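Sequence, please.
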């Protein structure tokens, strides 16, 4: 199950600051429709993601009817990404 989208990197400045990109509504709706078969708890969906040449495994977080893709510092630094950048993401949902 592959998903591709573009989104803007943002910094969530909560108790644990982190960078994310929001999965658009259409793609989030698709992910929500398959979530029962792939989630491992709390609505998290495991994925293999790719930005540029960098590939990693992570999990999507459900938030306000959509999903958030977390971007570790290692990923952002490898691709020279900053808050506010628009990125193209390719993901495969891992079963």
């Amino acid at each position: 199950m592959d998903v591709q989208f573009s989104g803007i990197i943002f910094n969530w400045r909560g108790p644990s600051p982190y960078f994310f990109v929001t999965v658009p509504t259409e793609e989030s709706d698709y992910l929500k429709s398959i979530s029962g078969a792939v989630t491992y708890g709390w609505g998290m969906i495991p994925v293999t993601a790719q930005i540029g040449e960098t590939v990693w495994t992570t999990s999507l977080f459900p938030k306000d009817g959509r999903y958030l893709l977390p971007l570790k510092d290692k990923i952002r630094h490898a691709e020279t990404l900053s808050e506010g950048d628009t990125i193209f993401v390719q993901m495969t949902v891992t079963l």
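The mean pLDDT is 94.
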